[in-house]
Amino acid sequence: MFGLEKPARSGGFPNMASVGDFNALSSSIPATKVELSVSCRNLLDRDTFSKSDPICVLYTQAIGNKEWREFGRTEVIDNTLNPDFVRKFIMDYFFEERENLRFDFYDVDSKSPNLSKHDFLGQMFCTLGEIVGSQGSRLEKTIVGIPGKKCGTVIVTAEELGCCRDSVLMQFCANKLDKKDFFGKSDPFLVFHRSNEDGSFTICHKTEVVKNTLNPVWQAFKISVRALCNGDYDRTIKVEVYDWDRDGSHDFIGEFTTSYRELSRGQSQFNVYEVINPKKKGKKKKYINSGTVTLLSFLIETEVSFLDYIKGGTQINFTVAIDFTASNGNPSQPTSLHYMNPYQLNAYGMALKAVGEIIQDYDSDKMFPALGFGARLPPDGRVSHEFALNGNPQNPYCHGIDGVMEAYYRSLKSVQLYGPTNFAPVINHVARYASSVKDGSQYFVLLIITDGVISDMAQTKESIVNASKLPMSIIIVGVGPAEFDAMEELDGDVVRISSRGKFAERDIVQFVPFRDYIDRSGNHVLSMARLAKDVLAEIPDQFLSYMRVRGIKPSPAPPPYTPPIHVLQTQI
């Protein structure tokens, strides 16, 4: 994670940009970057003759060892209890990761960068998901940390950075290119490269080949601004022109350079480029060029993102379904997958907590239906494949992930593990709810945790094919040592799942075996983080594929928060 741009040093504080240790979990390209703005109201007053001079320090938490590391600091604002900090924190955002944050506030009394030399004004803990998932991506929370004192409130607002998601639709043509083929004309194509910080170039796009012409018109193509110039509008873009040869030894015709800023002027005299072949230019005095390439059109498209929907108020509804079949083993025995160890979570508990703690940030009421399947229920011993873990079929909702865990442990004591293992009833249960809200205001995620020995494969496939038309995704976590071939088939990553000749409209199932995540060193925190990362990584794309197919646009976000106007404060 990278902090802020390095600002000028202010008041003796170190540079704000702090680069944490490389985190192997976060080495994928971030889905997006968000900018956090911080304001406070009614901070503690620690100065005798004037008001406090506050600063905000942001800390992030390492996943494995839970150690807090400083991420960055805002500027100091003199003499106010209601600061609106100008300096922002820019963070990578991954839906599938839980990013714990801590905001500490200090009253700055001297130019020392050492925080222990300043008065502590309190702190606030939250997750990045909590900020993003709040209405309008604006979180307001009480500042805590000084017993017996009211420390005021903090408002943190998240804004997705725009350049990450613009795409450009461009079309080029060329005139009078050099003839390279002995018998015919050339078969030209273009290759685009973006320049890197060290002066090297990375290929980012190739056009198609237009056969047998020196005046080609290439098809329009779409490329993200990130791929084209990494969001830097003045970065050099190099374009090479080649003549295609069947044997792969394509002949170089020439090249030119441009930038996103130049291209964005659109079709004009500025966007007609001479194609230069440096070798020819060096040899021939009369050499002018090897032809010209002209930009015909340039259109910017902003991709709507997962966060646009969340900010517009779309809620993610999370349902849990737990496998209570006899193949899990007797819960009172340590060999059972449902063993209730007083000292640590069993595999079911770990999978539930890992996934649930992240998803709950996107659900405003934090009420989750929790179901079980494959057990005999009291008092009459009937077998059920969709029973409420809290014992209330009319209202199977539990409060928060802790409420779900509690209901899970309670039902283990009251039901008898039995069988068979049927998935279709719980999938259909969630599908009934999902089918009643297709306007994009809600999306449903079902987590099935199972030991994997499925009995109703045909019915389950049919349920998944039907559910693929609805706003829902299914996550299956397989626990225990069984072979999970059937689960792999349901995942549909290799072969799209079908039932009675009908194929699923989109891929909505993600399966992972829990055993792949057991950390050899016994670090369960790390194995839970890795599990959550892999099972949740596909959700934003599955969510967007539903919205796109249905043509649902994000609702407008609520108007941005404007803090009450007060006298502008001086800054160091």
CATH architecture of the largest domain: 3-Layer(aba) Sandwich
Main sheet summary: 7 strands, mixed
Spans where pLDDT lies below 50 across 5 or more residues: 1-30, 567-572
**DSSP summary, beta strand count:** 28
The gross shape turns out to be: globular
Name the helicity range: 10-25%
Number of helices: 12
Strand content: 25-35%
> What's the end-to-end separation, in Å?
27 Å
CATH superfamily of the largest domain: von Willebrand factor, type A domain
Computed Rg: 29 Å
Q: What's the pLDDT, averaged over the residues?
A: 87
Domain C2: 10-141, 150-273
Function: Probable calcium-dependent phospholipid-binding protein that may play a role in calcium-mediated intracellular processes.
GO molecular function, one term: calcium-dependent phospholipid binding
Domain VWFA: 317-518
